[in-house]
Design goal:
The protein is of the alpha/beta class and about 300 residues long. The protein is built from twelve helices and eight strands. Helix 2 crosses helix 3. The longest helix has 16 residues.
Length: about 300
């Protein structure tokens, strides 16, 4: 039974030049849940209330460009350093000095960047199916991973990708979900996504994440990497059709406090949709040290 603290509250955080929409539930140590592409806060619908019921305050924002958050113009606005600054700003705006950070897919990329750029705001880090940036750049040197990441390149030209993704009631974006377990995304869920994608400028903003990612030279990107000091848990759906299983394990030098890589053999890229209860349990156990003793 969920208590009254588990009800969803909605708000907007003014952070620099962007306004981030978020939903929030619960009280206690702050967990920030960062969604990936092509989701929005709703991607965490099966984790928010259980985490709140476990004694945490949970904030799930729409990342910049998505759903009800600001959509700054231009590709440079979606650089990972900007995403990391947003997360740091959001943690402070919600009245906390630091937080427990969870990221899936692009949210995972933003979470890695936040832990590297602003280590003081990340107490513990949980990553779901998002390769450490060094592993991803290494992976993209191999034909097998390049084939899996074809859409990175498809999204580069101006205009054409936007027209393609809107065709046939957003079939292109809906196809990304097709390898999830049957029933993981209901028709009603998909309509919530379609509503978010259909907001003016949203498709371009979402695609700009990919455009920004290839603008940075690999040499410059590698030079910017810093060891992630926060204790880190990686949760990995092994049947990910976008990322090879070899990308799950970050180098120990990059993540010296890696707790472990928890591989879920039957889960797809959409690990938190395929096995929502298991993901909640893993997160609650990993974040338990942050709870006051009576809640553990």
């Amino acid at each position: 039974m969920l208590d009254e603290h588990s009800e969803l509250r909605e708000g907007y955080a003014e952070i620099g030049d962007v306004r981030l929409h978020y939903v929030e539930a619960g009280d206690g140590p702050l967990i920030v849940l960062l969604h990936g592409f092509p989701e929005f806060w709703f991607g965490w619908r099966q984790q928010i209330k259980p985490l709140a019921a476990a004694g945490f305050r949970v904030v799930a924002p729409d990342m910049r460009g998505y759903n009800l958050s600001s959509r700054p113009v231009g590709i440079a606005a979606y650089d990972t350093d900007r995403l990391a600054a947003d997360i740091r700003g959001l943690i402070h705006e919600r009245g906390a000095e630091s937080a427990l950070l969870v990221g899936h897919d692009w949210g995972g990329t933003a979470a890695w960047a936040t832990a590297m750029n602003h280590p003081e705001v990340v107490d513990r880090l949980a990553i779901l199916n998002a390769a450490h940036p060094r592993k991803l750049s290494q992976g993209l040197r191999h034909p097998g991973q390049l084939r899996k990441s074809w859409y990175f390149f498809f999204f580069q030209p101006p205009g054409l990708p936007e027209r393609t993704v809107r065709a046939r009631h957003w079939m292109f974006f809906r196809n990304f979900f097709k390898d999830a377990h049957p029933g993981a995304f209901t028709p009603q869920d998909i309509e919530r996504y379609v509503e978010a994608w259909s907001r003016p400028g949203a498709a371009t903003a979402m695609i700009n994440y990919y455009r920004a990612s290839v603008r940075k030279s690999p040499k410059r990107a590698e030079a910017a990497l810093r060891p992630t000091q926060a204790p880190t848990l990686v949760i990995w759906g092994q049947r990910d059709r976008f990322l090879g299983p070899e990308l799950a394990e970050p180098d120990r030098d990059d993540v010296p406090n890696l707790d472990r890589v928890e591989r879920l053999p039957d889960a797809s890229h959409w690990v938190h949709h395929d096995e929502p209860d298991r993901v909640v349990q893993l997160l609650v156990n990993f974040f338990a040290p942050a709870l006051p003793t009576k809640h553990r």
